[in-house]
Design brief:
heterodimer, A: 251 residues, alpha/beta, Rossmann fold, 6-stranded mixed beta sheet, 4-stranded antiparallel beta sheet, 9 helices, 12 strands, 37% helix, globular, B: 423 residues, 2 domains, 10-stranded mixed beta sheet, 8 helices
Chain lengths: 251, 423
């Protein structure tokens, strides 16, 4: 589903290279964890996947369902089924959450040539997903993410993800800022989206989230490259021994 | 040798003089009114169009901006659907008052009538030497409405004063009194029909009686070649409340003077301005707000969206009179500049002659926040729509303060329509 080939990328503004020859394959139905120490390029990778123009790809390619997405803008990538759950969801005053959800869902449907949702159908879907994530409908009447607590923001991200039904979900440090109860709710929300037709990439610094969202594969990112891949037990090794040992092996 | 040569009038100045010469015979008014018209016109002739050397016209140099005056003569126009369904419509078609079928309990008289009977004379004044709009309107005014909302008036139905023009020149006047404890919503709407250029002036003299609660919305939607001089002269009586919205969504050259005097204790003004600017237009909103007595509040928020090569100006002066203790006034002016050639000038001014007051002002100028844009795009909203959503959000916040949902929706509709055409 996702193939990243020899990807090199830098910060557009100052040319600092962050991703240095990254190779990664994530298959349909798979949950892949990407772990790495601070500064290894985890968040950058998530932004590059989503198409943020602060970064420049200088070499290599990203294939999504066999097609290069490098030339696509963020909205086109989203309507093809890519979703990034932000580490820091953005507060947007003046844009009502419900209005935003409706516009996003319908724009994606339009891009795929599907009919727009009727208002009752839209409300029904939001209510169902919100209930699963224990999101109060009153919260959704507020402007997008404005005044939401850390946990509310992350739940709102997962709500968007479940409503938009992407085929590739990228979760950037979704556990940061969550207490254990909120973490469980968020993880349940993500697990509910596991499906043979969908791939999920969980980017995280800590093993903790992976106790709740159990990965099929773990990849270690360091200095812009995947330096080791392995089964879920790899995450436990990292937790027990830290990154130093693996970094040493790779060096 | 210092010989002051008389400045040769510009084409526009000469055209104004000529237009007056042609019109004066047919303008309504008794002898005193006619004399006053001539006096006001002479003042324009002597001073010329205001230039940047006049402080209150510093950012709007009329002598260079107002090059031509459209010839008199308008194509015929029709009344349009009101912004809010079911409003009482008071129509001014090409500046002439149409006798309304239903006034909804408001006492209505045509301004032409009060010019003829001389009762209009006391209002044909100017504030000071900078009051070009007052002079222009006083010289040329032909009609309008004199409105009286009786004591205790209370209606859910808005009154829409609908000034529809089909080019040429129109000068109208709307003196309004809100009686004691009157509750009312008035939409003062200026609309163009057809393509012909117009020169419009409109002065509203608004007096709020004790305990009255008024929402007054100026909706300026003139055509792309039109010049619009609008002026509000407002007096707030004791314990009155005014929510004033001034929305500019049209015109090529626009000046809105807001002269507001808070004259009654415990009264409250909420001013919200929305400037939707695009093309090669110039729009100036100039506020002179006097807090003249103790214990009054006001907040002023301007939200400006500037596309293309448009220029916008906000001059906001707050004067706190000697002894006007416990005044609480807050002003802010926020601008989104959406092109490299867009331009906005904000000039706040506080003149405070009392020592126990809270007064503040602030101004921001920004582009659309790139992180906001990326977030929306990453959810599948194409860039154009995402920008429109963010621009709309920026101005919508002020509209949402209106508690009346029907009104909020109606104004949002106007904003959305404008953004769809310009975004």
């Amino acid at each position: 589903m996702l193939e990243i080939k020899n990807l090199h990328a830098r910060i557009a503004e100052d040319g600092t290279e962050i991703i240095r020859g990254l190779n990664l394959t994530v298959n349909k139905g798979e949950v892949a964890a990407i772990m790495g120490p601070n500064g290894s390029g985890k968040s950058t990778l998530s932004y590059i996947l989503a198409g943020r123009d602060d970064y420049e790809v200088t070499d290599g390619d990203i294939l999504f369902n066999g097609e290069s997405i490098l030339e696509l803008d963020p909205a086109e990538r989203a309507s093809k089924g890519l979703f990034l759950a932000f580490q820091y969801p953005v507060e947007i005053p003046g844009v009502a959450t419900m209005q935003f959800l409706k516009v996003a869902m319908n724009e994606q449907r339009k891009a795929r040539g599907e009919a727009e949702l009727t208002t009752p159908d839209f409300i029904r879907r939001v209510k169902a997903s919100a209930a699963e994530l224990q999101i109060d409908m009153d919260m959704l009447k507020r402007p997008l993410n404005v005044g939401f607590s850390g946990g509310e923001k992350k739940r709102a991200e997962i709500l968007q993800m479940s409503l938009l039904e992407p085929s590739l979900c990228v979760l950037d440090e979704t556990d940061s800022g969550l207490d254990i109860d909120a973490l469980k709710i968020v993880a349940d929300g993500v697990n509910a989206l596991r499906s043979p037709d969908r791939a999920i990439v969980v980017i995280t610094h800590y093993q903790r989230l992976l106790d709740y969202i159990v990965p099929d594969q773990v990849h270690v990112l360091y200095k812009g490259q995947i330096i080791k891949s392995g089964p879920k037990e790899l995450a436990h090794d990292l937790e027990a021994n830290g990154y130093a040992e693996i970094i040493g092996e790779a060096a | 040798m210092n010989i002051q040569a008389p400045i040769k009038p510009t084409n526009a100045e000469q055209a104004l003089m000529d237009a007056f010469g042609q019109a004066v015979g047919s303008l309504p008014g008794d002898a005193a009114v006619t004399t006053q018209r001539s006096t006001l016109l002479r003042a324009i002739k002597e001073a010329g169009l205001p230039t940047r050397r006049r402080e209150s016209w510093h950012y709007t140099d009329l002598r260079s901006l107002l090059r031509t005056i459209p010839a008199p003569g308008s194509t015929s126009v029709k009344s349009v659907a009101p912004i809010v369904d079911g409003s009482i419509i008071l129509a001014l078609l090409n500046g002439e008052a149409v006798k309304p079928a239903n006034t909804g309990g408001v006492n209505v008289k045509s301004f032409a009538e009060s010019l003829s009977d001389g009762s209009a004379l006391k209002g044909l004044t100017v504030r000071d030497d900078d009051d070009f709009t007052g002079r222009l309107n006083g010289s040329f005014v032909r009609d309008g409405f004199v409105l009286d909302f009786p004591d205790g008036f209370d209606s859910e139905k808005p009154v829409e004063i609908q000034s529809v023009q089909g080019g040429g020149q129109n000068h109208s006047r709307i003196p309004v009194r809100f009686g004691r404890s009157a509750k009312a919503t008035v939409i003062e709407r200026h609309v163009a029909q057809g393509e012909a250029a117009a020169l419009i002036s409109s002065v509203s003299d608004i007096t709020l009686g004790e305990g009255s609660e008024v929402t007054w919305i100026v909706m300026q939607q003139q055509g792309k070649d039109d010049t619009h001089f609008g002026q509000l002269r407002i007096k707030l009586g004791k314990a009155s409340r005014l929510q004033l919205y001034v929305i500019n969504a049209g015109g090529r050259l626009v000046r809105q003077d807001l002269y507001i005097d808070v004259d009654g204790e415990h009264s409250e003004l909420t001013l919200r301005g929305i400037n939707l600017l695009g093309g090669d237009t110039h729009t100036d909103v100039t506020l002179v707000l006097g807090h003249n007595v103790e214990n009054t509040n006001s907040t002023e928020i301007m939200r400006n969206v500037v596309f293309d090569r448009a220029k916008g100006v906000f001059q906001g002066q707050i004067r706190v009179a000697p002894g006007a203790q416990k005044t609480d006034a807050k002003m802010s002016c926020n601008t989104l500049l959406l092109s490299d050639e867009a331009d906005f000038s904000a000039k706040p001014e506080l003149e405070i002659f009392a020592d126990d007051v809270v007064c503040g002002h602030g101004a921001t100028v920004a582009d659309i926040d790139a992180t906001h844009l990326f977030y929306l795009e990453s959810r599948g909203i194409p860039e154009k729509q995402a920008r429109a959503l963010l621009v709309q959000a920026f101005v919508q916040e002020t509209v949402e303060e209106l508690e009346d949902e029907v009104l909020v929706e109606a104004l949002e509709g106007v904003i959305t329509d404008w953004l769809e055409k310009h975004g």
